[in-house]
Write a structure and sequence with these properties.
228 residues; alpha+beta
Length: 228
């Protein structure tokens, strides 16, 4: 498995775009090299107008989708909100939570995009590069490309296209709800990302890894950051 890619995080937005273009050549899209036993969900939460970020990574048993482990971290961030550069604002805090895990997951589902990004460097892709681990993105809104709405039945999909290139899938996780946008991040391919997202669906719209990460990071924020 490729090693983690290290680089400075204290960059200007212009420097960050340049870094994304350089890192794009390091992305590896391939089938998973081993069966998935443990899957993580990763998410960030913050209070409106606050630069104090709260990160959560929740690890689940892939078969039962029951929580095995969770890790949290909070810190003040300085990188501004810039569309397309979300990873520079959120990943440093996520990495500190990642470092606290006793056993790393086989794959991580990140709340956000993988390669379905204008420079193919969504937060899931960047997180995969930064950890040297397989990742996929699960987003609620499209950021790059276009798609034909999938059929209304649960489980229906349609490809997300950038010109003629497939960069992800729109997945209708529940009937008659807006689709989710699934894309591989790093060390995972398109079909593998979609298969994992489908496997993790339960009775809710969001797949269990990111649903639980979202739920747990917001509880952590309310408990530790009420005055931020």
């Amino acid at each position: 498995m490729p090693s983690a890619v290290e680089h400075p995080w204290d960059l200007s937005p212009t420097e960050a775009v340049k870094m994304q273009r350089e890192l794009r050549d390091r992305i590896v899209l391939q089938p998973l090299e081993m069966p998935v036993r443990r899957i993580a969900g990763a998410d960030i939460s913050f209070n409106m107008y606050s630069d104090v970020f709260f990160a959560a990574i929740v690890v689940l048993d892939y078969t039962t989708l029951e929580v095995i482990e969770s890790a949290y971290f909070t810190e003040t961030v300085s990188f501004p909100y810039v569309p397309g550069l979300l990873s520079f604002r959120e990943i440093p805090t996520l990495l500190k939570a990642w470092q606290q895990l006793k056993e790393k997951p086989d794959v991580t589902m990140v709340d956000g995009h993988g390669i379905a990004h204008p420079r193919r460097m969504g937060i899931a892709t960047h997180f995969g590069l930064a950890t040297g681990s397989p990742t996929l993105g699960c987003a609620k809104k499209i950021l790059s490309g276009h798609f034909t709405p999938p059929a209304q039945e649960a489980g229906s999909t349609s490809p997300i296209l950038d010109k003629e290139e497939v960069i992800g899938y729109a997945l209708r996780s529940k009937a008659r709800t807006n689709p989710l946008f699934i894309s591989p991040g790093h060390l995972l391919d398109l079909e593998g990302a979609l298969a994992i997202a489908r496997h993790c669906l339960g009775k809710y719209k969001l797949p269990e890894p990111t649903r639980l990460a979202h739920q747990m990071v917001n509880a952590y924020r309310r408990e530790h950051g009420a005055n931020d």
